Amino acid sequence: MKTGISVNRVPLARRAARLVPTLPAAEPADVISFGSGHGCPAVFPDLTEAAKAALNKHRPETLQYGPTLGLPGMRAWIARHVMENGARNIGPDNVLVVNGAKNGLGLIGRLLLDEGDAVVVTAPTYFTCIPIFKTFGVSFYEVSQDEQGLVVSELEEILARIRDEGKPLPKLVYNVPDYHNPSGVTMSLERRQGLVRAAEKFGVYVVEDSPYRKVRFEGEPLPLIKAFDASGTVIVLGTVSKLVAPGLRIGWVVATEDLIARLAQLKSDLGTSPLAQRIILEFVTTGGGYARHQKNVRETYRAHRDAMVAALRRELPEVRFTVPQGGYYLWLTLPPRIDADKLAARAFEEKVGIIPGSKFYAGKGPKGLGAPTNNVRLCYSHAEPEEIEEGIKRLARAYRSLG
Ligand SMILES: Cc1ncc(COP(=O)(O)O)c(C=O)c1O
What we know:
Elements: E1 32-33, H1 48-57, H2 59-63, H3 72-84, E2 95-98, H4 101-112, E3 118-123, H5 129-134, E4 139-146, E5 149-150, H6 152-164, E6 172-175, H7 189-202, E7 205-209, E8 234-239, E9 251-254, H8 257-266, H9 274-285, H10 289-315, E10 329-333, H11 340-349, E11 352-353, E12 355-356, E13 375-379, H12 385-401
Parallel strand pairs: 1-11, 3-4, 3-6, 6-7, 7-8
Antiparallel strand pairs: 2-9, 4-5, 8-9, 10-13, 12-13
Helix pairs in contact: 1-9, 6-7, 10-12, 11-12
This protein binds pyridoxal-5'-phosphate.
The site of pyridoxal-5'-phosphate has 13 residues, from helix 4.
């Protein structure tokens, strides 16, 4: 029913004016989806035994309200995970369990950002962070990326200029260092160290969002940016969405104890589902299934990536891209005459879903020179290799039809 309240003309809160339409959760069944970063259903683990164990062994805990900060065992497991990835002096008190990393980012925004504040993002950046930050009425500074990730020298120039002009410094730098969404780039060790030094020098937080870290196909893992942080400058966001299953809605924030305590005060839902947390804990700590699952994820998504790379080289040799060493995405650069928004619309008519690069810019693009119009993000995780073959053929048809 659409009448009711609106008839009385009760105005929405002012912040509702900043809300932007959300993307549909899924594409129509006959569309091959290279759009959203969904997992491949065939890779989702069988969690039946973990769920049974959670409900049989921990019935009161899983069906009762849980602790706002998260189950103690979950917080301890997350703290260990962050330490194993290079961070120092992290314990369960540095961890807040949240309903996925996006929920964590929203809480961080609510804690740190006032209307009129600014944040720094890479150009391009994870497109969902843009509407999340926008709800707080902030402005954006965009910093370029190259094959080593966020260009720290450019960030320092931007921050020094803001300071010299007597303007308020941004509150945080948001970055995805491992297999970046959308560019697939992994930030180098030197840049990770440099980013922490720059953030400490200018007194801004770094939000390190690393959901793809363990979806690694080649190369040695680098330490988290958090590993170089001795002063509490880096806030880590993590999630089980990309490695295990997004439907569980389990993520975490790792930060100083006082920030975590404040974030918990904002988390007004009386805690993330204890049942989902306990299922994860059972899965990751019992019987070697987690190790086998990680191997399967890596092998499957590597095969998906290889299938997409081979199909692109065959069907669209004029398109450029760097092959990512992990993660879910390929970031294509089309010849400048091709408008990626038009290509996405044509591709949809050919029944393949892609996301044009324009969606990944928070403002005017690197150095304010205008957001490029000839990039496309392709997600290879969701579709099976045969669908990837067919989807790239459809994309090539759409591309050729643009002349
Ligand atoms: C950079 C980044 N952060 C966070 C998320 C999602 O996190 P969650 O499902 O835990 O909310 C994604 C998923 O697409 C992502 O790419």
